[in-house]
Amino acid sequence: MRYVMVQIPNKPASTMPPAPRPVPTSADVARLAGVSRATVSYVLNNTSAVRISEPTRRRVREAARELGYVPHAAARTLRAGHSRMVLMPTLPVPAGPLYSRFVHDFQGAMSRLDYTVVQYGASGVGGDEAARAWAELRPVAVLVPGTGIGPEGVAILKRSGARAVVTLGPEAVEGAHAMLLDQADVGRGAAGHLHARGRRRIGVVVPEEPGMELFSAPRLAGAREALRGADATVTELPLAYTEEAADALAARWRGLGLDAVFGYNDEYAMLLLRALRDAGLRVPEDVAVIGADDLLLGRLLRPRLSTVRITLPLGRELASLVDRAVRNPAAAPESHALFSVAVVHRDSS
Amino acid sequence: MRYVMVQIPNKPASTMPPAPRPVPTSADVARLAGVSRATVSYVLNNTSAVRISEPTRRRVREAARELGYVPHAAARTLRAGHSRMVLMPTLPVPAGPLYSRFVHDFQGAMSRLDYTVVQYGASGVGGDEAARAWAELRPVAVLVPGTGIGPEGVAILKRSGARAVVTLGPEAVEGAHAMLLDQADVGRGAAGHLHARGRRRIGVVVPEEPGMELFSAPRLAGAREALRGADATVTELPLAYTEEAADALAARWRGLGLDAVFGYNDEYAMLLLRALRDAGLRVPEDVAVIGADDLLLGRLLRPRLSTVRITLPLGRELASLVDRAVRNPAAAPESHALFSVAVVHRDSS
DNA sequence: TTGAAAGCGCTACCAG
DNA sequence: CTGGTAGCGCTTTCAA
Question: CA separation (Å) from B127 to A73, B92, B146, B154, B325?
Answer without folding.
Answer: 19, 13, 12, 10, 23
